[in-house]
């Protein structure tokens, strides 16, 4: 076995330990034989000496003398026979000692054999340990090599870390300079925004002043015309319908008074006639009601502007309306060059907006159940996904695939504002209960509140799932998401106040006019009515053949919340009765199929059938005259 290595090396410690153990074992095993081997050698020497003596003392057969003859040495030894034994006695004694020595030699030989076997076993163990020692030495050599490689890698990593630290320090210094520049730019931007807001406020104040003067002049003309109408006499001798025509003529006069000054002369000539026959009357009852609503809206909107006091929410005008089940399509036309993704009626149901994949929003006048083209709103940066009117019906808000929502003013073809800030497609854009606030939802997992007066995002709500649709109540924002949940957000607080899970991805939400019920459509092919007073699902609507074909399928309440409507993947319109929960009708219209990747019109709204009597019209007009 090779000697131990340098004591200074850490790897040689275990070798020195093994050598010390082997030396200790050698000393222990050698001590057992130190006394045995010399004793055994002495016994062998004694045995050889006794064998020689026995050979010399044995007499030959012819030298044997009778016992009666005594030699001279016997005579000499006669007197001392007790002290010197006879040769026979000595022979017997030596034979006994030889036998004892043979026994001892046998025992010693047996012990030598046993010790030899033990020594062989120990030598085999020593060989095994030497083999293990060689394997461990090889393993130690491998580990030392690996350690050397690890040291090299650590040195390389240290050098790389040092280089990265220097680069980080350089980047941090650069970031500090950029942050300082950014702060300067932000301060400049704030100053510019403040100046712009002040300029807009002054312009808005001037515009409001001009509008107020113009409206006051119009109001004075209307009051004058109403006084003339009150003094005029109407003949009612022909039939009861003539009375209705007279009331209609008064409503027509109100409408003509609100027209530009170029039509005043024509209106004056009409008032010179003593009466108008039924055949000459072209104003319908719905037109009369629209005129009254416009006048009431005028009184309600006065004094509210961007630069004025905070705008109050728009209240709906109580009217006698009833939703009636449709039986057929009143008008069918090719509106867009590509798919139609969103439709929305204005507040008075006389204006319809449609948006499609051709990046256009078309405004249609609803006249006698027919659609007549009114205006085309251009400038959208992507396909239209959602369209909504503000409560006054003067602005249109649309969500687009271009990661933004855009705002138009009715009567202007180009976009008024662009609400940018989302990182993905904007799937929903809705006005709140005031015309200067809006909410958008996007596939970037955020819901944003906007101040439309400054085109500024006033709040960003981060959600863990895609937002497919939003609706707004008095002080709550409701959003439907891809993770099969409907979330309620307090617009006055920073957190989610409630979560209602549904079975399937939420594709649309519709809030009733009384804000007490919420209708949701989801990918599990069901519509659910949620009672917001107790925050639970009140009804679930299903139908054989109804299938929610995409994440953009829309479902809506009828204006009086009596019915729930949704379009299926095959183009069939399904209508359920909210009170009974039964399927009332399924209409196969001009939409005979739906695209698999993007549906056509998925939302259909029932046209209101106004059935006011002459007494109600007279009461409305009379209250306005008073």
Automatic annotation (TrEMBL):
Residues 57-90 are annotated as: Disordered. It is found in: Cytoplasm, Cytosol. InterPro entries: ATG16, Autophagy-rel_prot_16_dom, WD40/YVTN_repeat-like_dom_sf, WD40_PAC1, WD40_repeat_CS, WD40_repeat_dom_sf, WD40_rpt. GO terms for biological process: autophagosome assembly; protein transport. GO terms for cellular component: Atg12-Atg5-Atg16 complex; cytosol. WD repeats lie at residues 333-374, 377-418, 419-460, 557-586. Residues 17-208 form the Autophagy-related protein domain. Residues 126-222 form a coiled coil. Keywords: Coiled coil, Cytoplasm, Protein transport, Repeat, Transport, WD repeat. Belongs to the WD repeat ATG16 family. PANTHER family: AUTOPHAGY PROTEIN 16-LIKE (PTHR19878), PROTEIN ATG16L2 (PTHR19878:SF7). May play a role in regulating epithelial homeostasis in an ATG16L1-dependent manner. This is Protein Atg16l2. It comes from Camelus ferus (Wild bactrian camel).
